[in-house]
Amino acid sequence: MAFAIPLFLAFMGAEWWYARKSGKRYFNFRNSVSNINVGIAERLLDTFTTGMFFFVYQYLYHHFALFHFKPSVLQWIALLLCTDFVWYWYHRLAHEMNIFWAAHVVHHQSEDFNYTVSARITVFQALIRTGFWSILPVLGFTPGMITSMLLVHGLYPFFIHTRAIGKLGFLEYILVTPSHHRVHHASDEEYLDKNYGDVFIIWDKVFGTFVEETHAPTYGLTKPLNSHSFLWQHFHFYLELLQGVRQTQGLTRKLKLVFGKPDLLDPAIRPRLEERYLLRNDMVQATRRLHDYVVIQLVVMLTGLFTFLLLEHYVPVVVQVLIALFIFITLINCGAILEQRRWVFYLEYARATLLFIAAWYFFPYAVLLWVPALALPMALYYDARLKERYLRLVYGRV
């Protein structure tokens, strides 16, 4: 899967080039960075969870399988149809139940619609989908077949997240096309909660959730998030749901809220949570320095992720954990910089600490202990001056 990264980046670059040459504003810098950041986190965590998912399928197949299908052309076709059918219902319930929407909402936060949006998948969604797809080994499909199919099935949706492709003739009646999926990502009332299919559009037509694209959609949430914070994007709806449950009386009503539609949640909850947790800094305008620093970090993360995935079987577990933590702190750093937070300076201490631990792991020499012994007191003594210069360097002015 390591080589999927440059492949997807190439398509994103081609779409950006096409949009720029044709004068179409398909891309927003901050939105695109936020989209890719979410994808980096998901791809990184997948390296630690994929094995667990396979074990779940294997356990269910050996202990609960109703049948035992052997790989054949017909079985592969049947698996494709079953996988897509299960996806439809997972996707539909992810929009209709708050407990699932809390994970899926991240995918719909972007107000752009381009290939970078396809990266907005979280590991929470992967966990929920595994629960739905666990029916496949019980039906009798082997874990190897399921894993292979999910890889192929997971590639197709990338190509339907684009405005650069119009309607595709007769394929519109069979497959989920970019036109169909643009409707799904729309916040227009007539488009809401439609076109849930992943590969085949037939399920939407059978179950009455199909709508044709008749006008250019408005993308994003019905109530825009207006935040590029990596952490807030992932957890804001969980906090909203928790607060909603707390202020709801009675167990039955609490359960109805958790398993009911997002419309049931009090819309006044989010502004209160934003006031408490999402301190904004609108005084500092974005600068070229800020953009450059974010791009540099993005390039470093993508390069590191590619190398990590390529060599993961040769990298010690300790180093894997250190790399993962470094990338996650960098993701939080990028989101905080886009939000122009002042506390972003202290994340540099965290990254420096991880680099030192990695150096100590490979070179466990006592002389290295002098580095933090000297650096820490100096950093504390010059903290205010270092912070001011760092913020000036990144934001241009403080």
UniProtKB/TrEMBL annotation:
Species of provenance: Chitinophaga parva
Record keyword Membrane present: yes
The name this protein goes by in its record: Sterol desaturase
Q: How does it sit in the membrane?
A: Multi-pass membrane protein
- Which residue range or ranges hold the Fatty acid hydroxylase domain? 76-209
| GO BP annotation list | lipid biosynthetic process; membrane lipid metabolic process
A Pfam family: FA_hydroxylase
State a single Gene Ontology molecular function. iron ion binding
Q: What Gene Ontology terms describe where this protein resides (cellular component)?
A: endomembrane system; membrane
Q: Mind telling me which residue stretches traverse the membrane in this protein?
A: 45-61, 73-90, 132-159, 290-311, 317-336, 367-384
Q: Which terms are listed as keywords in the entry?
A: Lipid metabolism, Membrane, Oxidoreductase, Transmembrane, Transmembrane helix
Subcellular location(s): the record lists: Endomembrane system
